[in-house]
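Recap from last week: sequence in, structure out.
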Amino acid sequence: MNTKRIDLLNLDPHELTGLVTRWGEPVYRVQQIQQWIYRELVDDFDAMSNLPHSLRARLQEETTIGVLELAATHESADGLTQKALFQLADGQTVETVLMRYLDAPGSPEDSADPPNVARRTVCISTQVGCPVGCPFCETGQAGYSRNLTLGEVVAQALYFARAEKRAGYEVPLTNIVIMGMGEPVMKFNVTWRAIEAFTDAARLGMSARRIT
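Predicted structure tokens:
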């Protein structure tokens, strides 16, 4: 992994505009790039078919879409809950959990498949460990290493959004809860910018009422 590349998930629209214009590209490329990343949920620059080849090549060389690497996954017996362990660029790890909720209890064995699942909620982390140290919390008792970057927070949601899109869900995620590893208000600027990415109409476009 080339950690010197610019993580596009770390950039808000203004910052992405600055990057694109420095490269001599028209401003409308920003909307196109965001559409591919957040709406089409692609993580391959070659798939961005309305971008010129030269821009796709430069994006491939100088940027990346997230810096998380999937280290392990575990799925519950009923297929409704999935936990992912991600390795960060510095070797640290964080956990993210997808929780699927059925339309009604007592549905058939294949109920985890569309369209039986009414809600798909992803629980994301904001820190490696937690400095608060609550006695009832395993994360807090394990100690604290660092805050996550904006891109590392957003990438967790996008990972499961892509997975649920591949599974056939027209709306991959219905809810996001920022209640994973870490205390989100301790680095509120990053948490708030992540919420902006989730609710911005030009990016994920989720309702603010669906973010907890």
